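hey so i finally got around to running the thing on that chain from the lab meeting. sorry it took forever, my laptop kept dying and i had to restart like 3 times. anyway pasting the input first so we r on the same page abt which one it is
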Amino acid sequence: MITFSQTEEQMKAWQENMTPGENHQWLATMNGNWDATVTMWMDPSQPPNVSKATTKNEMIMNGLYQRSAHSGNMMGMPFMGEAITAYDNAKNEFLATWIDNFGSSIMMLKGSLNEAGNALTMEGKMMDPASGLDMHVKQVTEKTSDDSYKFTMYMVMNGQDIKNMEIAYTRAK
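ok and heres what got predicted. didnt touch it at all, straight out
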């Protein structure tokens, strides 16, 4: 017979892991509906593509995760994407996934807040379907006020951050 018992210390660790804390509260400050201006550089020598989008952020699973649903147009096509962002209490780091209708891969990232507590920097990998190889990416989400934040995405190539997307968010009225 298999038995499963836990010590009081182990139960406390599980309880702490499932309890939202200040990092979850930081994510929750960006809950709500947002209007977005998306600026994307496909080729740094060419003018950027600028489009409008909307985003809805909401905490799920008792406040442990934030779901972000995005919709708009990109490069003349309908665009939908979804992120799940978490703060892992056990690992002491932020984790995120990203999916969208422009590909069948899942981007995975991890990172941390800066000391000032206003910018979340995450790094990870995304698939480059042209080469079949993973690409190193970096994302910075910076809270600029209670009603605005900025997202910047970089491709990391040969140790250099190359900005390819910036999204300016304003809380929808």
